[in-house]
C-alpha cells in the first residue's frame, strides 16, 4: 500500500470525533465488527502557512467577535408557541396533548405511515435505521391561531441566533412525527427538501416520554437536545431545536411513552436582496486584512478556503454567497469587505469551486485503508453571485496544500470532513426530490491581474493566446500572458506530448518572430522549455530551434539557455548527436557536444542513471572529442561496486569495439581502466562459480505441492528416504503414482530436454518405489543424478562463459608492442596507434552493422550474440574454441551469458523507438 499515513479512527486518535463511517460500515457489513479506517492525511503544519500573510489572514478570520455567529445548533423551551396548538388530524380528530395512553397511540398510529429515509436516490424503510410514524402537513390543522403567529414570531429569532439578524427566513411545516417506545432515527443529514432550505427546526409538542434526544454532531462531542426531559418541562411546554441541514444528527431511541414533534424547513428568503450580510469585522480588522491581501496580491498568490459547512450544487448555483451558512458567511463577507476597499485591478476575484475528493478504500489486514492518494478535483467555478463560469477545467493542480487559507489550522482531512459519506450515508428523510449531493465547496481567491491565466485554465491557454494575439498585444500584455502560463505550469508537471502544448509554444515562437526582438519576452518563452525534449518535442519544435539559431539577436540571448536545456537531458542529447544530419548547422552539433560534456561534469545520480541507460559507446566514440569518451569512462569508474553492472558495461564496450574498430583501437588507453575493472569483476564471479558442489544433492528449489513429505525430502541433503505411515499398500502405491505422474508429465527424467530448456522443468530428479504391505507399507524415494549433473553442466558453462568473457576483454587491453594477447585475432591492432585527431574519427570505416564483419576483426565478440536466445542454435564460428561447452550448455541460468551484449543493443533499439516517437527520424535521416 503506497504511502500509508493513516490513523486509527476507531481508537479515537483522530481529532474530529465521531463520524458516520463506523455507523455505516457496521450497518452494511455487520460481520466486520472491528475495523479501522486509515486515511492519508496531510498534517496541519503542512496545510497553509505557518507564518506570512496567508497565515496572518487566517488568524484574522479565525477570530470570531460574535461567538454566537456559528451556533450550528441551538434550542430549548419556548413560550412563543402555545402548549395547546389545538391539533386536528385527519382520520383521528382532536389530539389531546400530551399523548399518554396506548389506546390513543394505537389510533394515531393507524392514521400514520412509517417514515422512510433517503439513501442516495432511493427512499427506504428500514426500522433499524429509522423507526418513526409520520403524518403529512396536509392532514394537520392548528385550531389555536396563536400557533402560526408563534411560528411567524419564531423566524426572526432564529435568524438572529444563526447570525443573520434581519433576514426574513421562512419556516415551512414538513411533517408531524410520532415516536413510540423503540422509535429512533439513526445518524443522518437532512435533504434540502425545497428551494432555499438550509436548516431544520424541530418543535417537540408537549410529550410524556423518556429518551428520544436529538444529538447534533460537528466535531468533538455532539450538542444534545433533551427537549425538557431533564428539567421535567417536556409534558407542559413546546421545546425546539435548530440545526443546519448538513449537520449530522440522530434521534436516540424513545425508551418509554410517546413523543410528538413537528419538523419545519428553514429557508432563505425568496428575494435575495433581503438576505443581510453580517458586518462584524471592525475597521481595525478590515485595515489589517487589506494590508495582508495587498501583500498576497504583490506575490500574485492565489489561495483557497475550505467552507466549513456543506452546500449543494443547487444552493451555490442559485444563491451564490447567499447560501453561505454561519462562519462561512462571516468569513467570506469579511474577505469581501476588505477586498472591496482595495483599488484598481489589484484586487482578488472570489469564486466557488466544487471540490471533490474521491478515494478508494480497501480492506487490508483488518483495516480499511485509503488506497493510493485520493483524487482531488476543483471544478465548476461559480462567481459569488452564483453564476457559473463555462468550461472551467479542473483547478486542483493549480493549488497546492500551501495555498490553503486555514483559519483553524486544520489538517487536510479535517478540512474535507463532512463530505465523506456520499455513497453510504443516509441523506435525510425521504429520498431527495432532485439531485442533491453534498460536496465540499471551496472559495478560490484569484488575483484579478492573473485573470488571463484563469481564463487560460478555463478555455485553454492556446485559445486564450490566440484571442490575445488578435488584439495586437503590447509587450507588457504578452509578457503578462507568458508569465501567467509559466506560473500555472510551475504548479504542475509540464504535460509532455500533448499537441496543444506544442502548438502553444509554437504559436508563441511565431508571435515573437514577428515582433521586434524583446529579450524579456524571449526569456519567458525559453522558460517554457526547460528540457531538451520540449525543445525538439516535435518536428515544429526542431524547426523552431533551427530558426532560432539563424536569428542572431535571439540566438545570442538564448544559446546558453538552450545548452542548459540539453545538458539536463543527456539521453536526448546523445541521440541527437548520433543522428545529427549533415545538412543542419555545424553549430548545433557543437552545441550538443558542449551540452553533453557539461551534463557529464555534474554529480547528479539521476543524470547518470539516464546516461547509463542511453549510453552508447558507439556514439561516444563517434564524437570528435575524446574528452567525451574520457568523461563517460570516468563516470563508469566512479560507480559503486555493488551498482556496477559488468555485463552492461562489457556489452557496451564490445558493441563499440565491434562497430568502430579503428577508433576504438585508437582510444583503447581511455577504455583501459574500464576494461580492467570489468575483468576484475568477472574474475571474482569466476572464483565464486568454481566453488562448492556439496549442495548438488540438495534440491533446494524443488517444489512438490502434491506431497509435502516428498518436497521435504527433495529439499534435504538426504539421497534416499523411506516414507512410512501408510494404512495399506494401496496408499503407498498411490503416492508412487502421484510421483510418477509429476515426473512424467514434466519429462523430468529426460536429461536432454533439461539441457535445452532448463527453467520450465522441475528442479529435481528422483525415483519412487513402493514396498511392504498393510500398515507396514512404505515408499522408497531415491534421488538420481540427472539433476545434479545438470547443475554441474550449468556451472561449467557459467565458468566457461566467464573465462571466455575475461579472455575477450583481455584481448582488448593495451599490450606491449609485439606481445599481442594470445588467441585473439587482434594482433593487428598495435598499442602504438593513437588516433586522436578529429579527421581520423571521420575517416573511420562506415559503421559496420554486420556481426560477420566485426567477427573478422575481433573474433571473440560475436560469440556473445546468440547466447541470450537459448532457442537459437549458436553459430559461434570456428575461432571460438571454448564455445563448445557454452553452446552445448543450457543458457537460461548461466549468468555470464545473460544478455550481456543485448543491453547496448536494447538501448539502441530503445533509442530508435524513442526517436520515432519524437518524429525526428524523417528530419534527421
Ligand atoms: O424527531 C426529530 O426531532 C427530528 C427527526 C429528524 O431528524 C428528521 O425528521 O430529519
Ligand atoms: Fe433529520
From TrEMBL:
Residues 1-20, 837-925 are annotated as: Disordered. Residues 167-268 form the Fe2OG dioxygenase domain. Residues 1-13, 910-925 have a biased composition (Basic and acidic residues). This is Fe2OG dioxygenase domain-containing protein. It comes from Pseudozyma flocculosa. The lineage of its organism: Eukaryota, Fungi, Dikarya, Basidiomycota, Ustilaginomycotina.
Amino acid at each position: 500500500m503506497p504511502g500509508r499515513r493513516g490513523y486509527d479512527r476507531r481508537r479515537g486518535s483522530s481529532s474530529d470525533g465521531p463520524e458516520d463511517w463506523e455507523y455505516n460500515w457496521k450497518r452494511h457489513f455487520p460481520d466486520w465488527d472491528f475495523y479501522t479506517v486509515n486515511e492519508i492525511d496531510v498534517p496541519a503544519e503542512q496545510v497553509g502557512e505557518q507564518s506570512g500573510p496567508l497565515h496572518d489572514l487566517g488568524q484574522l478570520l479565525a477570530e470570531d467577535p460574535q461567538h454566537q455567529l456559528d451556533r450550528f445548533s441551538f434550542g430549548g423551551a419556548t413560550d412563543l408557541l402555545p402548549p395547546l396548538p389545538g391539533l386536528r388530524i385527519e382520520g383521528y380528530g382532536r389530539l389531546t396533548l400530551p399523548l399518554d395512553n396506548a389506546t390513543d397511540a394505537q389510533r394515531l398510529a393507524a392514521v400514520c405511515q412509517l417514515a422512510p429515509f433517503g439513501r442516495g436516490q432511493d427512499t427506504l424503510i428500514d426500522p433499524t435505521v429509522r423507526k418513526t410514524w409520520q403524518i403529512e402537513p396536509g392532514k394537520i390543522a392548528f385550531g389555536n391561531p396563536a400557533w402560526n403567529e408563534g411560528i411567524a414570531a419564531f423566524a426572526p429569532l432564529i435568524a438572529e441566533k444563526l447570525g443573520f439578524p434581519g433576514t426574513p427566513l421562512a419556516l415551512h411545516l414538513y411533517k408531524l412525527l410520532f415516536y413510540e417506545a423503540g422509535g429512533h432515527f439513526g445518524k443522518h443529514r437532512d435533504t434540502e427538501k425545497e428551494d432555499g432550505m438550509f436548516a431544520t427546526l424541530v418543535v417537540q409538542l408537549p410529550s410524556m416520554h423518556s429518551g428520544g434526544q436529538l444529538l447534533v454532531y460537528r466535531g468533538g462531542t455532539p450538542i444534545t437536545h433533551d427537549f425538557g426531559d431533564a428539567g421535567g418541562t417536556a409534558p407542559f411546554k413546546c421545546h425546539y431545536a435548530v440545526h443546519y441541514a448538513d449537520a449530522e444528527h440522530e434521534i436516540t431511541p424513545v425508551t418509554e411513552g410517546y413523543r410528538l414533534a413537528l419538523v419545519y424547513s428553514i429557508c432563505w428568503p425568496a428575494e435575495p436582496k433581503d438576505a443581510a450580510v453580517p458586518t462584524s469585522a471592525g475597521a481595525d480588522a478590515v485595515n489589517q486584512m487589506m494590508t495582508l491581501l495587498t501583500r498576497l496580491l504583490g506575490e500574485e498568490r492565489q489561495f483557497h478556503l475550505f467552507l466549513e459547512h456543506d452546500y449543494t450544487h443547487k444552493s451555490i448555483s442559485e444563491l451564490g454567497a447567499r447560501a453561505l451558512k454561519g462562519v462561512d458567511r462571516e468569513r467570506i463577507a469579511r474577505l469581501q469587505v476588505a477586498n472591496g476597499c482595495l483599488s484598481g485591478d489589484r484586487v482578488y476575484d472570489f469564486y466557488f469551486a466544487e471540490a471533490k475528493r474521491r478515494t478508494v478504500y480497501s480492506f487490508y489486514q483488518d483495516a480499511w485503508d485509503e488506497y493510493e492518494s485520493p483524487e482531488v478535483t476543483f471544478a465548476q467555478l461559480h462567481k459569488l453571485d452564483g453564476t457559473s463560469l463555462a468550461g472551467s477545467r479542473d483547478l486542483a493542480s493549480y493549488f497546492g496544500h500551501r495555498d490553503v487559507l486555514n483559519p483553524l489550522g486544520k489538517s487536510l482531512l479535517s478540512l474535507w470532513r463532512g463530505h465523506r459519506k456520499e455513497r453510504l450515508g443516509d441523506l435525510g428523510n425521504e429520498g431527495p426530490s432532485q439531485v442533491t449531493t453534498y460536496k465540499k465547496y471551496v472559495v478560490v481567491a484569484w488575483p484579478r491581474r492573473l485573470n488571463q491565466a484563469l481564463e487560460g485554465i478555463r478555455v485553454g491557454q492556446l485559445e486564450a493566446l490566440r484571442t490575445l494575439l488578435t488584439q495586437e498585444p503590447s509587450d507588457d500584455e504578452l509578457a503578462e500572458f507568458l508569465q501567467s502560463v509559466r506560473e500555472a505550469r510551475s504548479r504542475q508537471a509540464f504535460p509532455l506530448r500533448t499537441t496543444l502544448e506544442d502548438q502553444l509554444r509554437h504559436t508563441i515562437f511565431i508571435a515573437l518572430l514577428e515582433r521586434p526582438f524583446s529579450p524579456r519576452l524571449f526569456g519567458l518563452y525559453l522558460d517554457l522549455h526547460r528540457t531538451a525534449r520540449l525543445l525538439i518535442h516535435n518536428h515544429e519544435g526542431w524547426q523552431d530551434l533551427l530558426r532560432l539559431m539563424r536569428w542572431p539577436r535571439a540566438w545570442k540571448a538564448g544559446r546558453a539557455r538552450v545548452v542548459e536545456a540539453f545538458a539536463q537531458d543527456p539521453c536526448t542529447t546523445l541521440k541527437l548527436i548520433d543522428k545529427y544530419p549533415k545538412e543542419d548547422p555545424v553549430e548545433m552539433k557543437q552545441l550538443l557536444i558542449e551540452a553533453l560534456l557539461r551534463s557529464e561534469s555534474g554529480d547528479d545520480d539521476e543524470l547518470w542513471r539516464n546516461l547509463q541507460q542511453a549510453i552508447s559507446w558507439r556514439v561516444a566514440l563517434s564524437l570528435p572529442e575524446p574528452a567525451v569518451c574520457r568523461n563517460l569512462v570516468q563516470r563508469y569508474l566512479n560507480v559503486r561496486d555493488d551498482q556496477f553492472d559488468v555485463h552492461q558495461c562489457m556489452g557496451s564496450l564490445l558493441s563499440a569495439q565491434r562497430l568502430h574498430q579503428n577508433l576504438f583501437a585508437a582510444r583503447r588507453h581511455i577504455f583501459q581502466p574500464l576494461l580492467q575493472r570489468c575483468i576484475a569483476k568477472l574474475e571474482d564471479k569466476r572464483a565464486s562459480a568454481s566453488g562448492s558442489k556439496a549442495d548438488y544433492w540438495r534440491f533446494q528449489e524443488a517444489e512438490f505441492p502434491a506431497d509435502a513429505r516428498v518436497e521435504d525430502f527433495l529439499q534435504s541433503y538426504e539421497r534416499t528416504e523411506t516414507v512410512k505411515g501408510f494404512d495399506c499398500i494401496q496408499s503407498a502405491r498411490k503416492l508412487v503414482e502421484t510421483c510418477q505422474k509429476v515426473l512424467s508429465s514434466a519429462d523430468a527424467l529426460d536429461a536432454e530436454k533439461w539441457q535445452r530448456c532448463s527453467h520450465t522443468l522441475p528442479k529435481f530428479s528422483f525415483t519412487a518405489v513402493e514396498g511392504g504391505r498393510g500398515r507396514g507399507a512404505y515408499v522408497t524415494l531415491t534421488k538420481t543424478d540427472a539433476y545434479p549433473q545438470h547443475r554441474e553442466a550449468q556451472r561449467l558453462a557459467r565458468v566457461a562463459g566467464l573465462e571466455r568473457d575475461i579472455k575477450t576483454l583481455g584481448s582488448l587491453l593495451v599490450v606491449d608492442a609485439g606481445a599481442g594477447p594470445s588467441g585473439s585475432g587482434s594482433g593487428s591492432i598495435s598499442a602504438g596507434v593513437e588516433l586522436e585527431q578529429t579527421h581520423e574519427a571521420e575517416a573511420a570505416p562506415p559503421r559496420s552493422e554486420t556481426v560477420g564483419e566485426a567477427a573478422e576483426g575481433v573474433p571473440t565478440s560475436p560469440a556473445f550474440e546468440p547466447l541470450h536466445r537459448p532457442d537459437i542454435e549458436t553459430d559461434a564460428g570456428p575461432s571460438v574454441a571454448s564455445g563448445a561447452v557454452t553452446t552445448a550448455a543450457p543458457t537460461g541460468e548461466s549468468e555470464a551469458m545473460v544478455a550481456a551484449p543485448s543491453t547496448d543493443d536494447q538501448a539502441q533499439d530503445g533509442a530508435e523507438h524513442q526517436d520515432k516517437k519524437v518524429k525526428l527520424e524523417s528530419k534527421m535521416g
